[in-house]
Amino acid sequence: MDEQTLIVEVRRRRSRAEAGQLVAEYEASGLSQVEFCQKQGLSLATLARYRKRQTQDSLAAGDRWVEVAGHPAQGIPASSGLAVVLPSGRRIEVGRGFDAHTLAQLLDVLEQ
Questions:
Q1: How is the chain split into domains, by residue range?
Q2: Model-wide pTM > 0.85
Q3: Is 22 exposed, middle or buried (0-12, 13-18, 19+ CB in 10 A)?
Q4: Rounded to whole angstroms, how far apart are CA atoms 44 and 50?
Q5: Alpha-carbon distance 70 to 61, whole Å?
Q6: Residue 84: in which H helix or E strand, if any?
């Protein structure tokens, strides 16, 4: 090998399923994006692109709801009513004894 020979690392493209698996692993990891990417040898931009694509695919497929965990979210006391955290990070909370009619109206607006 002479002095002008370059060694280039060729990275293969990940399938949508592989990218989706990485996103799921990130979301379940509890790590920051930086920590996860460092452990996986992944750039932040790539993870962001995979997350954005998965969100767009989910919305296009009509999958607008997320799984509800069976434990209280961090920072919310177990005695509170319900809390829904959207993938965007927005939170909707209703306390015990909430007005069901108002919640139904809110859901109608969100489903449009």
A1: 12-64, 74-112
A2: no
A3: buried
A4: 10
A5: 25
A6: strand 82-85
